[in-house]
Amino acid sequence: MANKPVFLYPSQGSQHVGMGLDLYETYREARRVFDQADYYLGFPFSRLCFEGPEEELNHDLIAQLAVYTVSCALTDILMNHNILPGAVAGYSSGFYAAAYAAGCCDFTYGLHLVKKAGEILLDEGTKFSGSMAVIFGLSQEKVKSICQRVGNVDVAIMNTPRQIVISGDQSFVRKAMDVSLHEEALDAYHLHAATAYHSMFMKGSSTRFLKEIDESCLKDPDVPLISYSSLDFLPSKDAVKAIMAEQLHRPVLWIDVIKKLYNGKNNLFIEVGPGAVLFRTVRWIDRHIEIMVTAKRENVLKVIERQGERQ
């Protein structure tokens, strides 16, 4: 990874009306990606990203598709400016854009995977009443203990050392929130998620999704690609296929991902996608890490300039 940046890919929650518009107006790479998305999805998807309405853009599956599309457009822009990653990582559904950046699939097949996985997850979610919540101010060990005591709730995402997402049966999530507040959590609040992502309740999704992944459409990674659940660098397309499915019901060990990718030296991290959600998590995990965002054209220009200084 010598002097090459680490690319980090965000997920649902980073979407916003207007995302990608200035990129579309400026870069042919972005126009190509958005036009491909419109064609594959069969409706003016780019207009939804650019103009809203916000309520529709915030639907789980649409949000996942939108963030993936913007992230891939930005990947092409950066790479065409000779900014190549030394390693890539994706946060939850951001893994598909990371796989795209690693050369594991083309844009359209990645979009297909995002859509198929999202549809399966939402369908599995109709079989029970699931929800997700953020616990703020307690340690990972404390939140894990509470989930074990309450039952039917898993630790789903380790965002920062003091911001943990839990996921599971709605009534048990509510109970875990109450226990956390009683045991001196600073805050506990529900996330806007349609189901209990990254929990034991999604195991059926992993089984179903594995059968949907066409290995002939995948390639071995040509850039180190890390799993957010196993923390392994994936050596082959077989490993990518297996982990894509497995991760649907496994936790996002984001803190450990960042620590594994940071070598303590002058490696630059770049959030490749809309918003700055991952930027904030990285700043909480380790203040020594230099991280930049790419959400808008002006951010992209700053990244291009900064990488030029480092070469």
What report would you give on this structure?
The chain folds into two domains: 230 residues, Malonyl-Coenzyme A Acyl Carrier Protein, domain 2; 66 residues, Alpha-Beta Plaits (2-Layer Sandwich), CATH 3.30.70. 48% of the residues are buried. The chain has a five-stranded parallel sheet, sandwiched between helices. It has 311 residues and is an alpha/beta fold.
Secondary structure elements and pairings:
Layout: E1 6-9, H1 21-26, H2 28-41, H3 45-51, H4 54-57, H5 60-80, E2 87-90, H6 94-101, H7 107-125, E3 130-136, H8 140-150, E4 153-160, E5 163-169, H9 170-182, E6 187-190, H10 203-212, E7 225-226, H11 237-246, H12 254-261, E8 268-271, H13 277-285, E9 290-293, H14 297-310
* Assigned CATH class of the largest domain: Alpha Beta
**In the residues, how many domains can be counted?**
2
Determine the mean pLDDT: 96
> How do the strands of the widest beta sheet line up side by side?
7-2-1-8-9
The ordered H/E elements are EHHHHHEHHEHEEHEHEHHEHEH
Q: What spatial form do the alpha-carbon principal axes imply?
A: globular
Gist of the model:
The protein has 311 residues and is of the alpha/beta class.
Output the keywords.
Alpha-Beta Plaits; alpha/beta; 311 residues; 5-stranded parallel sheet; 2 domains; 14 helices
